[in-house]
Write a structure and sequence with these properties.
Elements lengths: L10 E4 L4 H12 L2 E7 L3 H7 L8 E6 L12 E4 L1
Length: about 80
């Protein structure tokens, strides 16, 4: 009897110290593109991650490229 696997992830959130470098890395290595950016503090995310509120100041959502004018429904990362 085989054990069930993880299946697939539709999105992942990763905290990084250098967001611009992370966006370049994921773009160059996996072909992901920026879908949205957010500037400014996010106290709720900081609290969720156990950080001081001023530690989360920029975010980007990157995803697989547009196909037929639509974003893919899987393959997204949110970097903060």
């Amino acid at each position: 009897m085989s054990e069930p696997g993880l299946g697939a992830f539709s999105h992942v959130t990763i905290g990084v110290t250098r967001l611009d470098d992370a966006v370049v890395f994921w773009g160059q290595n996996f072909g992901l593109e920026v879908r949205a950016r957010r500037e400014g503090p996010d106290a709720a995310l900081a609290q969720l991650w156990g950080l001081a509120p001023e530690r989360v100041v920029r975010q980007a959502i990157i995803a697989t490229p547009l196909a037929a004018g639509r974003w893919a429904t899987a393959g997204a990362l949110c970097g903060a």
